[in-house]
Amino acid sequence: MNRAGRIIAVCGLSMALMMPQAAYAAETLSVQVSAREGITTVGNKQSAYDNVAISHVSNYVNIRSEANTSSSIVGKIYNNCAATILATVDGEGGTWYQIQSGSVKGYIKSEYFITGAEAEKIAKNVGTVYVTVSADGLNLREQPNMNSAVLTTLSKDSEYLEVKEDGDFIEIQVDESLSGYVHKDYVTQRVEFKQAVSVEEEKQKAEEAARIKKEADDAIAKVEELKKESGQSTENKDTPSTSIGMIAQNPNADNGTTKVQTNQSSQGSTSQNTGNTAGPGGDGSNTSTGSSTGTSGSYQDTQNGPGSAVYDSAVRTAIVAYAKQFLGNPYVYGGTSLTNGADCSGFTMRIFEHFGVSTGRTSRDQASNGKQISLSEIQPGDLLFYASGKTINHVALYIGDGKIIHASTSKTGIIISNAYYRTPAKAVTFLN
Fold it and tell me: What are phi and psi of 351, to 5 degrees?
């Protein structure tokens, strides 16, 4: 099998680095990698970073259509973004670069960039290295050797953050609670830098945020409409429903001895027992215990009101839509703020809290308080749990189509991932 490939994405310019000898031409730039050191070269003499600049600004600077400050603004470049230098020109007040960064092409004063050898030195710290699994059922190992313990199984095409290379292995961060080693033969690597944004892209980003918020507002309004039709509407708009038909708690709750999901999924998972929760969202050090105050599902099926399939679907849609509003927000260990930072269980706790249900603070609490379901029965709005050995240490919200939303790592924040980015251990629902 071929060695792992590495792709450096430099603001619109992709440089594919294949070990040991393959090269990739992006526009007019051909990049190779030294088989011994993995150092990028152009024509075997120059550094690939000779044509790459990394911004060094306090916040952002404008990219202009011409090499002067009176020309129109075509975009913005923020600190630690990378750009390809297309030309060096004399402009207003000195030297300017013509750059390409993402979709933005324009001019900026050279004083705002780090280039050459200095750029190469800081590139690894500025850029983010991602590792993508290229084989089915790849084992994540505890140590960088084939004989060490298997921590979990990773699914094909799932992507992770690289921590470091260690011989033939790469240490990756799966989420904030789990890291381990994979063999280079079964993954590809790419280095990604932040890039400039155009005026149009900023507008589109704002429009997308508004669209996601409207979807959430409309979905929650639909739930309230169904409740109103059945004569059970609520007055508090901040908490859309304090009686949304959730399960109060798992009648078979076991106070921390919950069995990890047995093999009931096409993906397969092993039968284990959970122990005391460890890792982010699992140490119970922040707020409440795991007793739920949600109302049990005592409603009768009144056409489309609480208890009906239509209502259940609307609630699930609302929960997912509400959660998606916080994509990109930070991960903070021990945090419970959807805007300023939450860990995995802090995130799921606050999502359900908005709908009037207390899931419990930790991943262990939530795994115990929900009603256990098989992995094959999971629906949008249910919770998936992940374990290291016998210990549940991560939780995510299932959003459908084989995907989850979760507070993943301090570098990625709240993201959407493949539900099998690591092997799920258990699934629970707080819905009837």
Answer: -60, -50
Exposure string for 104-138, b = 16+ CB within 10 A, e = fewer: bbbbbbbebbbbeeebbeebeebbbbbbbbbeeeb
Pairing, β 128-133 against β 159-166: antiparallel
Ordered by where they begin, the domains of the chain are 206-429 (3.90.1720.10)
Residue written as token pair 């908005």 = 354
Contacts of 204 (CB under 8 A, 6+ apart): none
Number of C-beta neighbours around residue 340 at 10 A:
10
Return the structure tokens found at 81: 């973004």
For the record, the structure tokens of 136 come out as 């089915």
Helical (H) or strand (E) element with 91: strand 82-91
Beta bridge partners of 288: none
CB 331 within 8 A of CB 176: yes
Catalytic residue list:
344, 394, 406
Using one digit for the tens of pLDDT, what is the confidence trace for 165-218? 999 999 999 999 999 999 999 999 888 888 788 888 888 889 999 999 999 999
Task: Write 135-144 long-range contacts (CB < 8 A, 24+).
Answer: 135/186, 138/182, 138/186, 138/187, 139/182, 140/172, 140/174, 140/178, 140/180, 140/181, 140/182, 140/422, 141/169, 141/180, 141/181, 141/182, 142/180, 142/181, 143/181, 144/168, 144/169, 144/171, 144/181
Measure the CA–CA gap between 152 and 140, rounded to whole angstroms: 5
Instruction: Provide the residue count of the chain.
Output: 432
| DSSP-based three-state secondary structure for 363 | helix
The CA angle 192-197-199, to the nearest 5 degrees, is 170
pLDDT, tens digit, for every residue of 139-162? Answer: 999 999 999 999 999 999 999 999
Are 356 and 254 within 8 A, CB to CB? no
- Record the tokens describing residue 311, joined without a space: 């209502």
